[in-house]
Amino acid sequence: MKWIKDEDFIRGNIPMTKFNIRILTLGYLAIEKGDRFLDIGAGTGSISIEAALHGARVYAIEREEEGVELIKTNREKFGVDIDIIKGQAPEDLPNIKINKCFIGGSGGQLEGIFSYLDINLEDNGIVCGNFITIKNLNNFIELLNKYRYRDIEVQLIQVSTMDKIGLLKGQNPIFIVKGVKDND
């Protein structure tokens, strides 16, 4: 599998999960052929595109019109099939069964999203979220525990890249959190 570099995505003013974080996130999700994957707060669609290239059936929800258009454009550029939903989680989430879910943006609706996952994420399904604020990180971990997820993992990732003259430029530190839905 060839991973897509950030500069290959068509981008606008919508946040995008950067290459190093994207690869780790997809690794935590263990995306594989046949997965039914939901990307909440899909942004430019970088996670959705990579998941589709790994063989997942992808549903991407994004509330910003610019993001929806970027996902459509990137979907066409990379020749993948993604169902795009313009809307807000949890009220506009599809009534489908999924086995993998990524939360890149929650719009402050993590509790409602977990209520949705309680019904729609299959037992042993994986949820993974990326966070830049401690408040959202803590809320996510509390909800993983409340809904009795297991195998919870948390990592803080700090990425810096060297520019053309040799200076390291840091990106925002990102918390990657994963949990597996319990089957009882």
Descriptive report:
The structure is a single chain. This protein has 184 residues and is α/β, with parallel strands linked by helices. It has one domain: Rossmann fold, CATH 3.40.50.150. Helix content is 31%, strand content 29%. It contains five helices and nine strands, in the order αβαβαββαβαββββ. α2 links the parallel β1 and β2. The protein is globular. The termini are far apart.
Tell how many strands the DSSP assignment holds.
9
Strand order of the largest sheet: 3-2-1-4-5-9-6
Q: Superfamily at the CATH H level? A: Vaccinia Virus protein VP39
As a percent range, the share of helical residues equals: 25-40%
Structure summary:
With 184 residues, this protein is α/β, with parallel strands linked by helices.
Helix and strand layout, with pairings?
Elements: H1 19-29, E1 36-40, H2 46-53, E2 57-62, H3 65-78, E3 82-86, E4 98-103, H4 110-120, E5 121-131, H5 134-146, E6 150-157, E7 160-162, E8 168-170, E9 174-180
Parallel strand pairs: 1-2, 1-4, 2-3, 4-5
Antiparallel strand pairs: 5-9, 6-9, 7-8
Label this structure with key terms.
transferase, Rossmann fold, alpha/beta, two-stranded antiparallel ribbon, 184 residues, 9 strands, 5 helices, seven-stranded mixed beta sheet, globular
